[in-house]
Each structure stands twice: as structure tokens, then as C-alpha cells.
Amino acid sequence: MLRRTPMTTAADAAPPAGEPQATGATPVFVARGLCKSYGSGDATVHALRDLDVDIWQGEFVVLLGPSGSGKSTLLNILGGLDAPTSGRAAWRDHELTGADEAALTAYRRDHVGFVFQFYNLIPSLTARENVELVAEIARDPMRAEEALALVGLSHRLDHFPGQLSGGEQQRVAVARAIVKRPDALLCDEPTGALDVETGKLVLSAIARANREVGATTVVITHNAAIAGMADRVLRMGGGRIVAIEANARRLAPEELVW
Amino acid sequence: MSALDRKLLRDVWALRSQVLTIALLIGAGVAVLVMSVSSFLSLRGAQQAFYAESRFAEVYAEVKRAPSTMLARIAEIPGVAVAEGRVGGEARVDWPGAEVPVAARVLSLPISGEQPALNRLRLIVGRLPEPTRHDEAVIHVAFAEAWQVRPGDEIAVILNGRRQRFRIAGIAHSPEFVFTSRPGSPLPDDRGFLVLWANEEAVARAFDMQGAFGEAVLTLAPGASEPAVIAELDRLLLPWGGRGAYGRHDQPSHRFLEDELAEQRTLAVTVPLVFFGIAAFLLNVVLGRMVEAQREQVAALKALGYPSPPIAMHYAKFVAAICLLGSALGIGAGAWMGAGMLGNYRPFFRFPELPYLLPTWLPVLAAAASFAVALVGVLDALRRILRLPAAEGLRPARPAAFGGGPLGHLGRGLGARAKIPLRGLLGRPLRTLLTVLGIALAVPMVVLGLFWWDAMDSMVELQFDRIERGDAFVALTDPRPSRAAREMARLPGVLAAEGQRIVPIRLRAAQRSRLLALTGLPAGAELRVPRDANLRPVPIPHEGLALSRRLAERLGVREGDTVQVEVLEGARRVHDLPVDVLVEDIIGYTALMEIGALNRLMREDDLVSHVALRVDPLAAEALWRQLAERPRVAATNVKAVWLRVFDEVIAGLVLTSAVTLTGFGVIIAVGVVYNSARVALQERGWEMASLRVLGFTRQEVSRILLAELALAVLVAVPLGLVLAQWIVGLILGARDNESFDVPAVISTTTFAAAALVVLGAALASAVVVRRRIDRLDLVAALKARD
Question: Could you give the ipTM of this predicted complex?
């Protein structure tokens, strides 16, 4: 299990600027002094440099930045897939840094929903079965049909991935991520492989999940147009958060223009 | 070295475990090919050299007593090249130290003191007897080695009831006794059987054959017809008590050697094909996967202007590299095993020289054969490389098209996790079929190694517990009135004695004929109990024959048919007799009738030629000594000795084959399971990493990936057991060996052991792959498509 940390530790360091006023009083994700480097000597690549961030309950956050800005590394650490070189990251009272493999697996299983750039569906399972696959290992899942209805795919339940378009496949992936009623929904370039219209369909599925399941949602993109639908936009560059923008009004995906 | 060749080396290195397991399969095939062909050639080479050098006779004719002048008549038969007469007979040896009586075959050497014209001896030490000395002898090397006999030693032989001492002048090999065994025994018993050559005068005097011969041996002129010569020979010798001439094919030593050579030939053809076939299938899967993974590279090379053929050649070289590695391993192992096999043969086949021959073309042929079969396996992958358009490869591959079809929704009612392996198997039926078949073939390989123990046990049980229930079998020097058996029953230590009359016959059914011994048994015999196919005792027919089922099949004879029996003794009368019943036997061919009926057929009195004894084990040794001294006893065969020799000779051979074939079974099981698992991981690693990201544990992911193989193994093992029974039956059925019938008996223990070996090998392979699953790169799953 993850180590439980007294909340005071999270509050020890000064919170970074720009928290939204509307959401809960305590952050669900807390990261302090995160550094991540690969390689050694002259070849060292610093993916994250002394990064602090708080993300709040139910928030819709977009991580925006060019390739190599560190957004994927940050998402991987928050998702329990990767460990920082130094600094710490916690989800609520669970310490993510220093946790062992089994604890991180349990964390992902119980609390996190992932959406990948290339959908990563199991080709031999239908849409419904792909969703059921995750429901089978979840504590309190919704019905697979319900999750697929949320992404607007009630009419494609028994189709295999090979029979679905890219956008449909990605919406199955979103359904698969939300069927467990995750506390956090982490999406890595979810529209990266899709055209505009299809991308919007996927984004509205994600937005709806965020709204109706209440999952704290972090979406990685290098497409600035998507920023409009976020509560907050964290702009990244050189392994740091270089700007935080709060949107007064979240745009619906249909309103996005790119 | 070109850049592509450097890539080749790195690819081989990156896939080294798969390369090695496939190379081992190829190596096993090459090894069996090299081993069986080289030991076949070595045996054949030694046989031909020795037969030529010693002028091994081609036709043999035994006769009761023919005047020496008949030899000139025989030599004039058209087609006869050389004819020579000699005197010979059965004898006993009074050998201190032998726990049971030693049997001997005594043969004469020409009166000139020179080598015979045919069947010359190859002296390894000493010399031939001086022409004037009647007390000198040459003995066969098998007995000499078993008892460490040297020239100058003395040996006492009871010839025709008379004891005679010989001084050993020399020790020799003989083409007639390359395989040396007591008459009727399919196993060599070097300590219990002696072949002795002495001057003709000494032997003739002992057997009362002066001025006569008891056996004619001949060679044929080129182009001569053997059956014609044999027919003429029979006609000439009939008045003198001819016992029926026969060709080299029926010469016991030659026939045994030919049986073995035939088995090596079968092995050389069948077993390597199994290995090469499985290797070709695995190469098909592995290379197919490699090409799929390297589509972008292939397309990029094409886009850069590389023509297709060198790229296809690059992948063909990958296959060649594996074949080369496998062949190198296989040629080394095959040469080693072949030399070892020859070592195993040495106690069976006594040649003056048995050098190991490995002609240079053999390794080349083996390697080329493996490469040819492997290329067939990868044709499909190579064709795809040639056809791949440059642009196509630069787009990511679409997800495996799955869906539709009758299998599309298979597994309804199961959890999603269970559906993945099930559909994985059924979505690629051909690959699944070959995987299952590949794993299944590992089972018969192990069973073939282990079942010999069962077969031997069953043989011994049938032949010696159920059919031949006596403890010893005594051959008399000549047929005696039946009271001889009753007298023997009164010897101390004898619990029961039954007289038998055995006469040599030629059995004819339509065009087929066969030389064998016809045994007359008393009705209600207890020491020799003929049994039917269900092993129930069969009453001995009153007038007709009880015939070996195996022989009946060979002759195409059924119960109720009539066969022609030509008695090759006495007046050589010919009778038509009904086959009343078929009986089971294991060693040699049985033909039985009631002893009274046989004696009436022979127009003789109540005679016996052999006596079966049941013996008190505590008094046995004293009894053997006593029997050895009785003048009318020609030989005593003791069951316990036969069983001991059987154990000694067979156990070593069976152990070697069990270890080798079990090793091969493991190579197959590991080769198939490991490569299937690795390919599955290569193909589905991305999916599995995705599942890990979604919160599946290592164990759950491993289970999903390996369940497919577990299912394949679970189907394969029972299939393998059925295949094993079938293949063993097939091999034994095709085995044309009349010396021994090996029953296709496989015990539950053997089946269980084979299943466990294959399951164990599969499990070990799975564990190795499982460790790779644990190291899956989760972050990569988020990004790269494949």
C-alpha cells in the first residue's frame, strides 16, 4: 500500500500560485521539487526541473507544451508509472514517490483511468468486452454499457476495434478509463491521432466523464486550441511550468476551433 | 562487412534465445540424421569389407551325411561359383567358472591346414591349427574376450557325448558369427556360447562323419539365380538327408545385422523430418514476426533505393545463420552420438574392424537439408518483404483485424480476461494447430525413449511367465524315447519335466515359405502354455497346427487355412496340415502340434528331442553341473541366465535411447513453447503493457498472455499421448524384425512421465518469458505504436 502522509507535510511548502477558487479546499495531486533526469554526464537530459504543482478535486487541467517540455514525464509520475529523480509527489494522502511496484499498481487500479494516444484496445475483444476487462478488476465499477453510453457508443457495443473508426476506438478507450469511476482521469494526447471533428467527439466524451463521474482530469496536448475547455491550463517548457492560466468559462468541445 | 550484414549479426544477437532454441531443434534433426546415417554407413562399410575379405558364403545347405564326392556335383550346378563342404555340430563346453553349461558350435577347417575357401577366419591372435594336430583349435573372439582366453589355454569340449581337450591355437573373427548367439536366442551371450574351429579330421571323427560333409556352403556366380541354385541343391542333397538349403538372407548373423541396418535407415529418414518440420514452423512464426516488426525498416530501405532482392536475402541469411548454428551443433552431436552408437554395437556385432565413418558429404547434406526445409517455412515472410511497397511500411499497421466470422463472439458467458486467450487461439487457427501439434510431438519423443522398459517388461512377462513356464530347456543330442524325460524328472532338484519333439520344417503357404522349428507338445503341457491374443491358454490341437499369429500374418494365413509342411529331417515328407489356432509369441516364430501327432507324422515312435524342466532354485546349480555331465545332453538353456543377459544387454541400450529421446522431447517442447511465448509477447507486449498501465498486476497480465499457451499445452499433451500410442504402434508395426516382436505396450507411468516432462519444459519456458513480462516498459505503451 501507499504510505499515508499527514496532510501537514503537503502544506509545509508554500502552495504554488494560481489555484482556482471554485474547487475544493485541498489539492488531490501535490508535487514539490520534482526533478527527473535521464542519462549521465554530458548526455544528461533534464525532463523535469524542480517542478511544483497542485491539482484540485474535480478539476479539468490541460498540460500544454511542445515535445520535450516534460508534460508526459509529469503525467507518468502522477499516474504512478514513473518515479522522479528527486522531489516528491502525492495523491491525496498516498505518497507516490518511493512506493513499490505493487503499491503503484494498486493505485492505478483503484484510482486512475488512463487514455492513450493510440487507444491501446485489445483487438480480440469487442467494445463492450474491452470495457468489461477493466470493470472486472475494479472495486465499484459502473456497467460497461453505461460507460459506453456516456461516450455515445451504445450502438457499437459488440463491434471489435478493427470494425471501429479511430475516434470510436478512442471513445471506447475513454469508456474503459471511466468504467471504474476513477478519481483521476489521465489522458496522453488523446486526440493526437485523430482529425478535428473526431477529436472533438472524444474531447466531449472526456469532458462529460469529468463532469458526471467527477474525476480530476489531466489532459496532455500540444494543441493550444484544446486549452479552452480546461479549468486551468498549465503551460510547460524546459521541464518547468512556465505559465498557469485559469479560464473564466470552460468552452464546450464543439466550440473549440483549430 | 556490409551494413546489412552488421544488422544481421545484431538481430541474431538480439533474438539470441529464440535463435538458440530453434537452432537446437535443427541441431537435433541434424544430429539424428548424422548419427543414423554415419552409423549405418559404418556398419555397412565394416560388413561389406569383412564379407568381401572373408568370402562370406551366399547359400547354406545342411545335410545329415553326404559323401564328399557330392561336392563336385554341387560345384557343377549352374550359377555356383565356389562350393565347399564341412562338418559341424552342436557341443557342450566343460568350462570351469561357468555357472550354467556353455553351449558350443564346432566347425571343421580344411584338411590342408589352410583357410577355408569360404567364410575365412580373420585371426586376431595366434594361428590356424597345424594340419597334423587334432587337438588344436581356433575359437571365436566373443567367447575369448568374455573369459579372457589366450592362445595356449586349454578347453574341454563334449563332442557327441565324448570329452575332448583342445589347445587354443588362435582367436578369430568370422563373417558367419558377426552376431553370435545361441541358436534360437536373439541376444548375444558371449559367456555362454562358444564357436570353435578344429581340423576336419578331428571334427569328422567326433561326429562320425569321415569321408562325408554335413554342410555345404556356396557362393554364386554373378547373375546367378539364388532360388534356382537352392532348388537344385535341395534336389541333389535330398537322398542324403538334406535339411533344406537357404540363402544368406536366412543366415542368423546376417539377418540380425540387416534388421539393425534397416532400423537405422528408418530412423535416418523419419526422425529428422519431425525436427526440421517443427523448426520450419517456428522459423515461419519468428521470422514472420520479425519482418512485421521491421516493416518500417524494410520500407525505409526500399524508399532509400535498396532493391527488394538484397533485402529478402538479408532475412534469408538470418535463417541461414540459425541453420548454420544448428547444423554445427547437430553435426558435432551427431558425430559424437554416432561414434557412441557404434560403441554400443561392438558387443553385438563382432567385426575385425568397425571404424567410425563420417563422409564429408554427410554434414553438408544434413546442413543443406535443414536449410531447405527452413526456407520452405519462411517463404511466406520473404514474399511479404518482396511485395511490401515502400510507402506502406511507413504507415503504422492497423490493429489486427478481428471480428465477424463464426468464431467472432466465442466465449460468451466468460469474463473478458478469459476471452482474450480463447480468441487468440481461435483467431489464428492454423498457427494454433501447428503450435498444438508441435508441442504434442514432444510427447511421443519422450514416450519413444521411455516405453522400451514397458515393452521389455511385457515381453519378458508374456514369454517367460505365461508361455514358457519352465526354468530350463534341455536339448538332447538326438531324439530319444520319451522315457528320457521321465528319467530326467527323477534328477535331484527337478520338480517337473516335459518332453518335447522339435523338428526343422519348411512351411509353405501359396508362394510364401519359411524355415522354422515345429514343436510337438504333450496335451495339457504345463511348462509351455500356448496362448491366444487375449492371453488365454489354448489347448494344443490334436491333428492340426497352432501357428504364431505374427508368422500367420506374414504368410497371409488364417485359422482354418491349410499349409504345406515339409519336414526337413529323415525322409523329408511333405504334409498338408490345417492351421487350427493362432497363438501369441515374442521371440522367433512358433509352430506347435500335439507330440503324438507329430511323431505319427514322422512315422517314428514316441520320441522326444528336448525336455523342459521346472527346477528347485536351491538345487539348481548342482543340477546344471549334473546335466553338463550327461552324455545325451547337447545343451541346457537356463531361463534365469537368459533374463540376466537380457537385462545387461538391453538395459544400457534402453537407457541411452531414453536419455537421448527425452532430451529431444525437451528440445521440442522448449522450442515450441518458448518461441510461441516470445512471439506472443512481441506481438502483444504493447497490449499487455497497456493493461499494466490500466492497473492489471504483473501476475494478471502474465496469466492473460500465457493462458493461451497453457490452453495449447493442455490440448497438446493429451493429443501427444494419443499420438504416442499411434506412433509407437506405427514404428513397431513397420519394424520388420522377426528375431524380436516388441509389443506396443506403454504403461501409465510412461505416459505420465512423458506428460510431466513436456509440461515441465513448457512451464520452465513460461517462467523465463514471465520474467520478460515483468520488465515490460509501461511508459512506452503510452506512446509508441509497437
Answer: 0.85
